Amino acid sequence: MSGTAARSTYKLFVGNLPWTISSKELRSYFSRFGHVANAEVVFDKQLGLSKYYGFVIFSQRDAYNSASNQNTHLLDGRVLNVQRANENA
Prior knowledge:
about 90 residues; alpha+beta; two-stranded antiparallel sheet; about 20% helix
């Protein structure tokens, strides 16, 4: 791991995801704000089912700020719980 590249991460926690949403769909939704470096829905490893939350990492601060400052995010009829992820490295 390079210490310089990971200096600023623009990572959001996304909760209350519909169980039907994949990482690809999560990336697609948040890409409207800017380039998504990574999007991941967290799954239960034993059951293979969504844990109803995930993380989105943006490559640019503007996209991150736009997404995190939007009041309501709606995906497949559900209001998402979007918060800035706490990264204490």
